Amino acid sequence: MKVHNLRSGLTIHHQPSPFPSTAIHIKVCSGSVNDVIAGTAHILEHTLFEGTKTFKNSKKLTSFIEDLGGELNAYTGLDSSNYYCIIPNKHLNKAVKVLQSMFNEPLLRKKDVLREIKVIKEEILSQKDDFMQELGNKLFKTVYKNTPVATPASGTLQSIKKIKISHVKNYYKKHYNKKNIIITVVGKMPTGLEKIGLSKGQRTKHIFYNGKFGGNKTLQRKVGSCYHAQAYAITSLPVFDILENIFDKGQSGVLFHYLRTKHHAAYDVGAEIIQSQNQKLILFYGVGSKLNVIKSAMQEALESDINENMLKIAKESVIGNIAIQKSSIHNYMELLTKYPNLKEYEKKIIDIKMQDLENTLTKATEINLIPQKKN
């Protein structure tokens, strides 16, 4: 992959590909942890779609891409605000036109901010119906208590009420500058990307929060099953990518074997790595009817022996999965956003030894959601 560090401070990563379409990912290196009021970065992300000097409203802006078969979307994380566009190569200049307009000339109108606050309120309320999301939110509040990481990127019902147009504009002016933007292109390299972003501003400095792992919390909710999760701090991302593969490699994974095949304790099982510039953790979870059975089977799985052959297979599986992701323009874009130097990452995977896996899953935080007791 070619890396272009422009004099303006803008960074552009380019990975040529034979795809008939091109994916452009724009990462603003500031997210929800940089909010003065929780939810501001997320509201700004929504509002950038609501109109620019060139495209006066959301329909005109999005249809300019979608009418060509393209995709335009965005999401806000703890440490970054991300925008991406996938477009047929023959219309690449139109994608650049839209992205330039969104980043350089957004209208940021009060009426749009107020409307998006209402939309995000509904988004936050809908999360309460997603019990895995609620479990994750509670986990972050417990592990990263009294830090910005503890609050979801969407903000809270209380915090978004306090956000005003001035907060949104100030966030835009402070963070959406060229020095704080990394653009990743998979496919054909377009012209005009160098114009994206404000000229004045600095790169955001991030604080890493270690979190406090240990203990457990059990919450009663209107659920039909019991949700159990155990989270551990990550010390080495490649090592934990291997562990995630060993424990959650579909039906051949260790979690599936112990929680489903052996004990019939859960239907939904898995592992997930959650990482940003501000935190890193791995989450193991199981969903079933009997909490004590899930917990017992989970513990048996996590204490099972990992041998050299399992490590060898996991390495081949992780690297094989990278090859598969390269066959999708969207997945390839996301992969390079996460690992800009894939060759270096693959080498780290290959170099992992058994001793690197030992004593990695030490102190866990446990979160449970269980059905409410009937009166």
Secondary-structure blueprint of this entry?
Blueprint: E1 2-5, E2 11-15, E3 21-28, H1 40-47, H2 58-66, E4 71-76, E5 81-88, H3 92-104, H4 110-127, H5 131-143, H6 157-160, H7 165-175, E6 181-186, E7 216-221, E8 226-233, H8 237-247, H9 254-262, E9 268-275, E10 280-288, H10 291-302, H11 308-325, H12 329-338, H13 342-350, H14 354-357, E11 365-371
Parallel strand pairs: 2-6, 7-11
Antiparallel strand pairs: 1-2, 3-5, 3-6, 4-5, 8-10, 8-11, 9-10
If you had to describe this structure to a student in words, what would you say it looks like?
The chain has 375 residues and is an alpha+beta fold. It folds into 2 domains: 2-195, Cytochrome Bc1 Complex, Chain A, domain 1 (2-Layer Sandwich), CATH 3.30.830; 216-371, Cytochrome Bc1 Complex, Chain A, domain 1 (2-Layer Sandwich). It is built from 14 helices and 11 strands. The protein has helices spanning 40-47, 58-66, 92-104, 110-127, 131-143, 157-160, 165-175, 237-247, 254-262, 291-302, 308-325, 329-338, 342-350, 354-357; strands at residues 2-5, 11-15, 21-28, 71-76, 81-88, 181-186, 216-221, 226-233, 268-275, 280-288, 365-371. The strands form 2 sheets. Strands 1-2-6-3-5-4 form a 6-stranded mixed β-sheet, sandwiched between helices. α1 (40-47) crosses α4 and α8 (237-247) packs across α11. The longest helix is centred in the first third of the chain and has 18 residues, at 110-127. The radius of gyration is 22 Å and the shape is globular. The mean pLDDT is 96.
